[in-house]
Design goal:
The protein is about 70% helix and about 0% strand. It has 4 helices and no strands. It starts with a helix and ends in a 16-residue tail after the last helix.
Length: about 80
Amino acid sequence: MNKTDYDRALYYTHRSQWDNLLILMVRTDDQFLAKKIEHFLHAYNFERDYSAIEKRLYSLLRYIDHANETSGDDGYIEPVAPGLT
């Protein structure tokens, strides 16, 4: 599991960089992420109903959030020198 893939997916989605999101879909090792990206891009390009696009987008964003939470990094950064905070 590569946490940078989730950060990139979030960034590309936020910036509407669909080409980069497609490249990430092909290159990532996380098959769930790839499938969520595939479903979203398909809905974005072919669905006429905005609620279907919104559903796929929220599904992708929920998965990215879940994957970031369970990646094992709690966001704590150790101080360089002991005793410094």
